[in-house]
C-alpha cells in the first residue's frame, strides 16, 4: 500500500510517499519518494498557499506513481488541544476542530487544515489520518499540566501544558520497552528527544505523565534557537523598560536564543566542534544545555516513581556522543554508569550504552516520525474500515 | 551589645532591636523591641519616605533604649548584583553601589539606600552592615546562572540567575550540617525555604551551586501569590493578543497567581484546611506545588552530585506537616523514607524526620533571618575593627 505522509509547516510542506504492507511490514526501502515545498505564501515564490503546494506535490509524484494510486494520507498536526487524545480519521468535523484550535497554534493548524481540505477535495475517497504532536501527552495528570496561574487563564485562554513531539516520544517509548523486554504498560522511563527542538518526557506505565515543553514548544530544555525555561519576569521587565516589544521578545526567545544565542550556531555539531577547538562560548553552552537536561532527568526520575530507562533519541540524542556523555557524566547520583565505548559506537539500531551494573539502563533509540505516522495512518484507517 | 536589624520593603520598614554578646552569644530573650512602619510614601499615611520612617523607629525606640545607644545596624538588602558576594560594611561607596543596582530591584534597593543614608546622617559613628538576599548565590557556576539567551541580555541588561533568600539558605545550611555532624565544606544538600516566597537551593561543599529563583524572585516554585515557572510564551501570547499589557502581566504573575490564583487563598494553612474539607481547587494546588517541588529535589540531587540531606525551613517548611508529607511521599525513588510521627511533631529545634534507613536524611530546621543578620552585622563590624 502507498501512504503519503505530510508535514505542513507554517510556510513549508514536507512529504514522503511510503510503501507499507497491510500488516504494517515494510520493504527494505519503504520511502519511495520524498520532497519539500518551501516559501509557501512568500510573495514571488509561485506557491500561494498549502492547496497550491499540494498541486505541486501531486505533479512531482505523477512519474513515481506510474498509474498507482495513493491508498491513504497521514498528516502531522501540531496542535490537538484537549480534543484529540489519539490520532483520528479525518472527517469534516475533525478538520473544523483543527481549525478551531488555531489560537493555540496560529501558524501551523490553519496550514494543516488547508492541506486536509485540499486532499479531501482532490481525492474524496482517500482516507486521511491526523497525528498530533500533543495527543500523546493528554495522559498527563493535572499536577503536571496545570500552571500555578489564575483559573481564568486555563478556562478562557486554554493556557495549560500541552507538550509536543508526542509521536516521537510514543514511538521511542515502545521501542525502548521492547529492547529491554519490559511490557510497555509496566515501563517507567525518561525519554530525551533532542533535535533542533528538544523535549524530555516522563513515562509511567508506558504513558506520558510529564514533559518539558508546555503551552508552546518554547519551554524546557535549551534548544537550537529556543531559550527553554527562563524567569518569566525577564519578559515583562524587558517589555516594560522599552527594550523590546512582545513580538520582538517572542522572536528573540524562539529564534535567536538557545545554542544560537549563546554561541552563534544553532547546530549542535558546530557547537561541539567549536568547544573542542577551545571556544569558550561553545563550552559554556554545552554545559548549560547538558546541566539543565541532567536536572530534568533527576526530576523525572522522581516523577515516574523511579525510572527503568533513560533513552536518547533524535538528531542530537542519536548522534552526539559528546553531548550524551556530558549529560551522563552528571547522572552518577542516580546510579547511572555508561560504557564510554558503547557511547561512541554508531548504529541505526536501538542499543544500550550503559554498563551492566548501571542502576538504570541508558539507551539510544532512533526515532522516525514519518514511519510512525505511516503506521498510525494504516492502523487508524483499518480500524475504521476505511482501508 | 545592641544591634538594630532593618528590613526595608518598597513601602514598609520592619525592624528588630536585638541584644547580642560580643562573642555572638544571645540572652534567652534576644529581641528587645520590634516594629513595623507601613504605607511609606502612600499619600495621607504621614510617612513620606524611608528617612521619615526611620525617624518614627527612633521615636519608638527611645523609651526602650532608656539612654543606651545602638551599637550597630544591620540591613537586609534585596539585590547585591554581581558586586556583592558577601555582607559588607557600609561606606558611601557601598551605598552608591546599592543605588546603581536599582535597575535589578527598582522597588527595594532605593528604599534600602535611603535607610542607609538616613542612619549614616543621624548616627555617623554607628557601623552599618548590609546583608544581601543574593550574595550567597554568587558561588553558583556559570551553567547554573546563565540563561540560554543572547549574550547582550547578560552584558547589557544584567539578565542572569541571581537567586534570593540567601541569608536563610546560608544559615540553614550551616545549622543542618551541624545537626548531622558533617563539616560544612563537605556538606551537599537541598534546602527548601518555603514561606510566602519559596525557593530551593542546591548546596555543594556548603555553598550554593543552584537555586530556583532567578533574575527575580518570581521563578521556580509555586508560592503564595507567585506562579513560579511558566512557559515564557504565555506572557508574549497574552500581551500580543491584547488580553494583558506587560505591567498587568507582571502583577498577575507576582500577585495574583500561585496558591492565591489557584485557590483564592495565598496562605498555606487555609489551603491545607480547605483541601481536607474536600475543596477540589485546594487539592489540585497542593498537588501542583508539592509535585513541582519534588521534581526540583530530584534535579538538585543530581546537581549536587548526591545530596546528603533534604532540609525544610520557613513558615510552610517548618510548620506544615501535610505539605512536607506530600513532597516526601514522592521522594521514594531517591531512597528517602520519613517517619510519619516525627513529621507531625512540633518543635523549634532543628530535627531529623526521616527514618534510620532513609538513603538521605530529611531535616526540619527553623530559619531566623533577623538573627542571622544580627550575627553577620556583629562579625563584619568586628572584622573591620568598627566594633
Ligand atoms: N553527528 C552529529 N553530531 C552531533 N549533532 C548532530 C549530529 N547529527 C545531527 N546532529 C544534530 O541534530 C540536530 C537536529 O536534529 P533533528 O532531530 O534532525 O531536528 P528536528 O527537530 O529539526 O527534527 C542538530 O542540532 C544537529 O546538529
Ligand atoms: N502551622 C502552619 N501550617 C501550615 N502553614 C503555615 C503554618 N504556619 C505558617 N504557615 C505558612 O507559612 C507561610 C508564611 O511563611 P513565612 O516564612 O512567614 O513567609 P515570608 O517570610 O516569606 O513572608 C504562609 O503560607 C503560612 O500559611
CATH class of the largest domain in chain A: Alpha Beta
Classified in CATH, the superfamily of the largest domain in chain A is ATPase, nucleotide binding domain
Oligomer: homodimer
**Based on DSSP secondary structure assignment, what is the total number of beta strands of chain A?**
12
Spatial ordering of strands, largest sheet of chain A: 3-2-1-4-6-5
User: Hey, roughly how much beta strand do the residues of chain A contain?
Assistant: 15-25%
> In DSSP terms, counting alpha (H) and pi (I) runs of 4 or more, how many helices of chain A?
15
Q: Unreliable stretches of chain A, pLDDT < 50, 5 or more residues?
A: none
Radius of gyration of chain A, in Å, reads 21 Å
CATH domain topology of the largest domain in chain A? Nucleotidyltransferase, domain 5
Major beta-sheet overview of chain A? 6 strands, mixed
Number of domains of chain A: 2
SSE order of chain A:
EEEHEEHHEHHHEEEHHHHHEHHHEEH
Question: Secondary-structure blueprint of this entry?
Answer:
Two copies of one chain form a homodimer.
Chain A: E1 2-8, E2 13-19, E3 31-37, H1 50-65, E4 72-77, E5 88-89, H2 92-100, H3 109-122, E6 128-132, H4 142-145, H5 151-155, H6 166-180, E7 189-194, E8 198-204, E9 207-211, H7 233-240, H8 246-255, H9 258-263, H10 268-276, H11 280-303, E10 310-313, H12 314-319, H13 321-328, H14 340-344, E11 351-352, E12 362-364, H15 369-383
Describe the structure.
Two copies of one chain form a homodimer. Chain A has two domains: 2-132, ATPase, nucleotide binding domain (Nucleotidyltransferase, domain 5); 181-369, Nucleotidyltransferase, domain 5 (2-Layer Sandwich), CATH 3.30.420. In chain A, helix 1 packs across helix 3 and helix 11 crosses helix 13. With 387 residues, the first copy, chain A, is α/β, with parallel strands linked by helices. Chain A has helices spanning 50-65, 92-100, 109-122, 142-145, 151-155, 166-180, 233-240, 246-255, 258-263, 268-276, 280-303, 314-319, 321-328, 340-344, 369-383, and strands at 2-8, 13-19, 31-37, 72-77, 88-89, 128-132, 189-194, 198-204, 207-211, 310-313, 351-352, 362-364. Chain A starts with a strand and ends with a helix. The first copy, chain A, has a six-stranded mixed beta sheet, sandwiched between helices. The interface between A and B is large, with 81 and 80 residues. Bound molecules: adenosine-5'-diphosphate (2 copies). The site of one adenosine-5'-diphosphate has 13 residues of chain B, from helix 10 and helix 12.
Amino acid at each position: 500500500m502507498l501512504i503519503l505522509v505530510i508535514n505542513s509547516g507554517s510556510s513549508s510542506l514536507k512529504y514522503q510517499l511510503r510503501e507499507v504492507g497491510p500488516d504494517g511490514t515494510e520493504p527494505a526501502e519503504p520511502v519511495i519518494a520524498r520532497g519539500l515545498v518551501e516559501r509557501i505564501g512568500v510573495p514571488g515564490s509561485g506557491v500561494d498557499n498549502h492547496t497550491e503546494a499540494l498541486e505541486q506535490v501531486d505533479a512531482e509524484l505523477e512519474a513515481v506513481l506510474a498509474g498507482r494510486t495513493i491508498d491513504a494520507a497521514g498528516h502531522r498536526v501540531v496542535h490537538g488541544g484537549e480534543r484529540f487524545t489519539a490520532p483520528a480519521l479525518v472527517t469534516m468535523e475533525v478538520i473544523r476542530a483543527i481549525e478551531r484550535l488555531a489560537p493555540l497554534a496560529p501558524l501551523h493548524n490553519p496550514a494543516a487544515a488547508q492541506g486536509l481540505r485540499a486532499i479531501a477535495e482532490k481525492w474524496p475517497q482517500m482516507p486521511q489520518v491526523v497525528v498530533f504532536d500533543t495527543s500523546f501527552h493528554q495522559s498527563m495528570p493535572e499536577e503536571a499540566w496545570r500552571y500555578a496561574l489564575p483559573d481564568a487563564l486555563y478556562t478562557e485562554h486554554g493556557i495549560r501544558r500541552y507538550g509536543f513531539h508526542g509521536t516521537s516520544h510514543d514511538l521511542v517509548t515502545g521501542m525502548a520497552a521492547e529492547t529491554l523486554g519490559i511490557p510497555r504498560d509496566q515501563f517507567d522511563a525518561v525519554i530525551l528527544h533532542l533535535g533542533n527542538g528538544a523535549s524530555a518526557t516522563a513515562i509511567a506505565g508506558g504513558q506520558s505523565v510529564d514533559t518539558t515543553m508546555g503551552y508552546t514548544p518554547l519551554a524546557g530544555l535549551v534548544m537550537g534557537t529556543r531559550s527553554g525555561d527562563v524567569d518569566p519576569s525577564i519578559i515583562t521587565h524587558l517589555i516594560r523598560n522599552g527594550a523590546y516589544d512582545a513580538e520582538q521578545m517572542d522572536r528573540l526567545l524562539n529564534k535567536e536564543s538557545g545554542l544560537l544565542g549563546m554561541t552563534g550556531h544553532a547546530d549542535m555539531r558546530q557547537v561541539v566542534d567549536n568547544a573542542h577547538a577551545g571556544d569558550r562560548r561553545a563550552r559554556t553552552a554545552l554545559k548549560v544545555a547538558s546541566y539543565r537536561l541532567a536536572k530534568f532527568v533527576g526530576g523525572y526520575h522522581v516523577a515516574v516513581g523511579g525510572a527503568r530507562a533513560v533513552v536518547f533519541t533524535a538528531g542530537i540524542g542519536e548522534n552526539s556522543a559528546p553531548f550524551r556523555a556530558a549529560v551522563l557524566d552528571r547522572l552518577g547520583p542516580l546510579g547511572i554508569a555508561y560504557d564510554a565505548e558503547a557511547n561512541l559506537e554508531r548504529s541505526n539500531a536501538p542499543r544500550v550504552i550503559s554498563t551492566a551494573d548501571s542502576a538504570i539502563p541508558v539507551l539510544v533509540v532512533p526515532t522516525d516520525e514519518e514511519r510512525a505516522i505511516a503506521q498510525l495512518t494504516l492502523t487508524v484507517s483499518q480500524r475504521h474500515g476505511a482501508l
